[in-house]
Amino acid sequence: MSVAKQKANTITPKARKLVDTLVASGCTITEASKVAGYKGNSSRVSASRMLRKPEVQQYMFEQIQKNLGMSAVKAQHRLLDLCSSAKSEYVQLEASKDILDRAGFKAPDKHQHLVKGDFSINIDLK
Known about the structure:
This protein is mainly α. The relative contact order is 0.09. The chain has helices spanning 3-9, 13-25, 29-36, 43-51, 54-85, 89-102. It has one domain (3-102).
């Protein structure tokens, strides 16, 4: 088992509930601390201290990655749907560009080169 996984397994059930609530609902630390079971007027302070611990931060990072991974699948399907069935041709074009970019087929960047200095051109038509 990796060190990160071992640390994530050492957090308390209350800390795990705090992180799970924050990640799943996007609520405030105060709201999540109450759901997780932190009591009293200093529940937010206690929860904030818990969230600063490296093992809790690691667990939160892993949960956010899982959550984003699941959302990425939904976003991918939405982008493909927009590409083929959006009413606006502009939206279809932008979705197509995004798909190509993410697939590694990004159009080359355009660069403007400025030339500084004196130059002249003579054309002799004789």
